[in-house]
User: Which sequence fits this backbone?
């Protein structure tokens, strides 16, 4: 119950941060729109089933789409990382860690190395797919590659900052 | 058949993922204006509510910039008013109408500047207002000051490079020529130091028949103020049997408590007028 409450609050807060702040800040560069909303997926507990992460990915992606007037764009990308999350976690994690189902992925529970790889791969996949879909609509390869890398970098920086700032190792149970 | 169902059941997660992806991509590819109107209704109620709240906040933080823009626009508009332009009367035959507006501004009489109020008092006997605009920005002594809604505020008394001091109407020595709108009889506006809301209109001839609620405007005799600016309304009439004049209590139209911006009015012919008035007095 507590978990459900915490995650609903996260869902709303991240969505609001994404819509009100990150989508509104004046662009630093034409490539860069930082994305933070999908750490909702990254921070779900280890025990969340694949079908749940997939559906939640779709839910948060579609909610964001309603505000950005791009129905399906973020939904597709978030669904993809939701679906791939358990696979990536299984590769990265030692058996005993993934058994503590109520814990959440963080530097403290996974260690620096695996968490960074997890973060990097999820962010990269999300942005690659997102920008690919955008690119298919407008079509400019240089723009596509540049945007994937710069936006991924910016988003990772933000997520890492959020991770360190919130210092989730103290909250873990 | 059984095999197919079994296969789907085994890979249920994958299929739901596939379906969601297809749904997203179809939505994305078929997105258009008509699509927007079809799905838009429900989406807009949710997203629209949040966005309108957000806009309210964003608007609040933009108020400062918006305000500055409005002030600039108001000054520009005010400077275009026809009553600022008064051609010198060169007619020799009676009945000649002169309607001339020249682009070189030779006939312009009044010019407006905006100014931000940085200091204001209204509780003392001698109240002053400080504004952030001074001699370097075109302010001169004796310029008239009016509030954004067109009612008068006071007169500039001190100027330095970047700041000016305004003698507010709420000052014991303040004196502005005014008239009753009803019968155009002139008097002068003063203040008795009692209430910041009430001004006195003195020296009104007893031939005037003022009524409670009458409008009081600036008179054409003032050298700093343009004529017909709002000053206030009559609230009560004080009859003094020993004098030939009436004194009226005026509810001031200017709200001195919350002045943020004011306009300075420059009369381009003030010096000429003062000059000739001075000469008359020398003869005595």
Assistant:
């Amino acid at each position: 119950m507590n978990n459900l409450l915490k995650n609903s609050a996260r869902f709303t807060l991240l969505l609001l941060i994404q819509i009100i702040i990150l989508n509104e800040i004046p662009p630093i560069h034409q490539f860069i729109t930082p994305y933070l909303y999908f750490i909702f997926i990254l921070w779900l507990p280890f025990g969340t089933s694949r079908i749940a992460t997939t559906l939640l990915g779709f839910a948060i992606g579609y909610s964001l789409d309603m505000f950005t007037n791009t129905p399906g764009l973020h939904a597709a990308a978030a669904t993809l990382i939701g679906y791939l999350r358990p696979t990536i976690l299984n590769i990265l994690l030692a058996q005993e860690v993934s058994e503590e189902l109520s814990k959440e992925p963080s530097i403290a529970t996974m260690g620096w190395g695996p968490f960074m790889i997890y973060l990097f791969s999820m962010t990269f996949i999300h942005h690659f797919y997102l920008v690919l879909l955008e690119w298919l609509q407008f079509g400019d390869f240089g723009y596509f590659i540049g945007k994937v890398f710069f936006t991924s970098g910016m988003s990772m920086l933000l997520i890492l900052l959020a991770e360190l700032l919130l210092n989730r190792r103290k909250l873990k149970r | 058949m059984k095999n197919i169902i079994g296969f789907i059941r085994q890979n249920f997660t994958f299929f739901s993922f596939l379906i969601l992806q297809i749904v997203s991509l179809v939505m994305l590819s078929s997105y258009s204006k008509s699509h927007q109107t079809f799905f838009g209704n429900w989406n807009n109620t949710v997203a629209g509510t949040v966005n309108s709240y957000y806009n309210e906040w964003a608007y609040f933080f933009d108020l400062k910039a918006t305000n500055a823009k409005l002030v600039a626009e108001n000054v520009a508009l005010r400077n275009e008013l026809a009553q600022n332009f008064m051609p010198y009367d060169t007619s020799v035959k009676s009945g000649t109408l002169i309607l001339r507006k020249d682009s070189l501004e030779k006939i312009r009489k009044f010019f407006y500047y905006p100014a931000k109020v940085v200091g204001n008092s209204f509780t003392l006997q001698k109240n002053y207002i400080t504004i952030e605009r001074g001699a370097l920005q075109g302010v001169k002594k004796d310029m008239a000051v009016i509030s954004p809604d067109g009612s008068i505020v006071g007169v500039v008394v001190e100027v330095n490079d970047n700041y000016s001091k305004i003698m507010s109407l709420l000052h014991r020595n303040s004196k502005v020529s005014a008239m009753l709108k009803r019968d155009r009889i002139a008097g002068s506006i003063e203040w008795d130091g009692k209430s910041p809301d009430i001004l006195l209109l003195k020296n009104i001839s007893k031939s005037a028949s003022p009524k409670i609620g009458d409008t009081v405007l600036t008179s054409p005799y003032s050298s700093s103020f343009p004529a017909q600016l709002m000053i206030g309304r009559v609230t009560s009439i004080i009859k003094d049997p020993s004098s030939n004049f009436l004194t009226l209590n005026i509810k001031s139209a200017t709200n001195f408590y919350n002045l943020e911006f004011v306009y300075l009015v420059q009369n381009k012919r003030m010096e000429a007028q003062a000059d000739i008035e001075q000469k008359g007095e020398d003869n005595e």
